[in-house]
Specification:
53 residues; single chain; 1 helix; mainly alpha
Length: 53
């Protein structure tokens, strides 16, 4: 079974689109984890400062 050039181009475009979606998901996951880490650090710093006084 032969694929036409049009189908190959479409498949390539769909692949690139799905790769882009995966990259966006990964980026969003990293941003979310970074925010959680920053919030955790801020909370710990606040707790340390409160126990000093």
């Amino acid at each position: 079974m032969k694929m036409s050039n049009k189908m190959l181009i479409l498949s390539s475009q769909e692949y690139k689109k799905s790769q882009g979606n995966i990259n966006i998901i990964i980026t969003d996951e990293i941003k979310s984890k970074s925010k959680q880490i920053e919030e955790s650090r801020t909370q710990k710093a606040t707790e340390v400062n409160l126990t000093k006084y």
